[in-house]
Structures are given as structure tokens and as C-alpha cells.
Amino acid sequence: MTPPLNRLDLNLLITLKLLLQERSVSKAAKRLSVTPSAVSKSLNKLRDWFDDPLFTNGPSGLCPTPLAMAMEEELVNWMALTSQLAERRSDETPKGMQFRLMIESPLSTLALQQLPSQILESYPDSSAKLLDWNSDSLEAIVSGEVDLGLSGREVYIRSKESINTLPYYVDHQVLFDEPPLVFLHQDHPALKQNWDLETFLSFPHINVTWEGRDLWALDDKLAEMGLSRNISLWLSQFTQSLLMAEGSTQLMATAPAYCRAYASRFHPELTWRPIPLPQEPLSELSVPLTLIWHKRNNHNPKLLWLRQQVCQLVQLWYTDCSQRFDGK
């Protein structure tokens, strides 16, 4: 006797559909962003429900039984119907929604000033939580505590924060890519010397602990050359490092180039210079500003809207900054 439908977890049907498409437990697990063990457990539940093995092992992967093959077209129709229902639901404006973002400072202050207003206009009675990006942010995105992250990554191949080290179940979009710059007081004595690597390394530095690391790709590249910086001060945010650099005629800070807008607005006594390295190693220090989210939210209407708004605001801001600082 077939059990009642209300006892069937409909998520199991999604697993069944992917198993029919992939003919592989591991590939289905990857698309679901779960472990193969979880898919195997779901398959066992489906076998118990339908009282049928559904798949047998074959030389090229899973082979569906006649019952599983008969259900394949029906599952496609069922998925199409649920998508239509979801689209109808997404046309409504639900109340009480929460938007949770973790954003690298100072981008929330500059590029995304209008985002809270846009959220409230499109989603009345909603709330937004915009927190600073930190070393736990990626884990928060994976666990579902955060909807979206915006942070600079690294391209250096050996970096643990390289954009290529993001886990497969996390999606990303690079909004723009810029090199880091050196920020220092306009009366800093380094500006009276030749701006070269020797000058750069002869003064004390401010460093930002990035993704839980006290050093970053610049220090790795210098170490390859048998060199190192004299780091006198560690801080947790680029905004803090710019403040400290403005207050000293000895210290210098290194920060992504998009911090120029913040420096010119809030720290007018700061100026900036390129890191004095040859072009090849300098290109490995590039900082791609990256939008990050979990794959499970790829078709979430709220998250699709949020990503679109963030992308538009950041691109508009970046275009304006590029025009203002071009050649400076």
C-alpha cells in the first residue's frame, strides 16, 4: 500500500530528477551542494517509498529501472509546474523580509549608500543588516546566515584567499579588478626620495589582517625576492589603516585602489603611489572585488534582485571613481 503523499519529502523528488539526469551520486551531490552520503541516504528513502531499487550500478554509472524511467518525464512536468508557482509567488511583495550582507569596508559607506533605501522601497516592512566582511564571512554565507558577500579577493596562485580557492558550492561574480596602492601622508619623507622598492621597504608599514592572515600576497612575493616589509602596526580594516596613515609622517598603508575614494573624501592629507614592483609580480597582487553567494540561491527571487541592485550601484560608483582618479 502506497504511503500518503503528505509523508513524502518533496525534496527527494528533486534528488531523483538529478540522479536521472546525472546517472551519478557524486555528480548529483555536487549540483545539490551536499555530500554523496546525503544523496545516497535520499536514494534509500526513495527506494523504500516506491518499493523499487530505482537504479542499479552499471559500467558507465547508474542505470534507471523501468519505474524510474517512467517517472522521468513526469518529474520534468512537475518541476516546470513548481517553477511557475514560484514565479507567481515572486511577483508579490512579501513583508517582513530580511536582507543580510557582509561588505568589505569602506564599500558600504561609499558604493552602497543607496542600497538600504532601495530595499525598503521594493520590499516594504523589510529589514537590512549590512556588516563588515571578516574572516568568518564565507562560512556565514555557506551556513545561510548571510545572503550575499562583497569583498576583495586575491589572484596570487599560492594565496589561500585566491578567487580560485572558493568552494565549488559557492558562486561568485567579479565586479572589477584593481591593483593595491600605497597610501601615505602628503608630508611623508618617502615622497622626497626616489619612489622605488628600496624607499618603500625602508619605512614602517601598517598592515591589515586579511581573512585571518597577518600577511598577504605582497609579502609572499617579497619573500620570493628575499625581501620583507617592516610592519609596525596591524589593524582589522582598511578604513582604520588609512586613518592611521594620515596621522603619521612615518607609517604607510597598503590598500586596494578603490580606497582612493574614501581617502580623498575623509582623509584629504593622504596621497597614494603604486607599489614599486615590476609589472609581472605587481599583476599577481591584483584585487578583484567579488560578489559571493551560495549556489542554492541562484534562483531565489529575493537574492536575484539583491545581486542586481548591488552590481548596478557598484558599477556606477566604480565608473565615477575611474573618471575622477584616472591618471592621478
Walk me through this protein's architecture.
The protein has 328 residues and is an alpha/beta fold. 42% of the residues lie in helices and 21% in strands. The protein has 13 helices and twelve strands. A five-stranded mixed beta sheet has the order 4-3-5-12-6, sandwiched between helices. The chain has a five-stranded mixed beta sheet with strand order 9-8-10-7-11, with helices on one face. Strands 1-2 form a two-stranded antiparallel sheet. Helix 9 links the parallel strand 8 and strand 9. The longest helix is centred in the first third of the chain and has 25 residues.
Short description:
The protein has 328 residues and is an alpha/beta fold. The protein contains 13 helices and 12 strands. A hairpin with a 2-residue loop joins β1 and β2.
Order of helices and strands: HHHEEHEHHEHEEEHEHEHEHEHEH
- Intertermini distance: 77 Å
Query: In which order are the strands of the major sheet placed?
Result: 4-3-5-12-6
Taking all Cα atoms into account, the compactness measure Rg is: 25 Å
Question: How many β-strand runs?
Answer: 12
Overall spatial form: elongated
Mean pLDDT, rounded to whole units? 86
Major sheet details: 5 strands, mixed
β-strand amount: 15-25%
Share of helix, binned: 40-55%
- The structural class is alpha/beta
Spans with pLDDT under 50 lasting ≥5 residues?
87-91
State the oligomer. Answer: single chain
Q: Work out the helix count.
A: 13
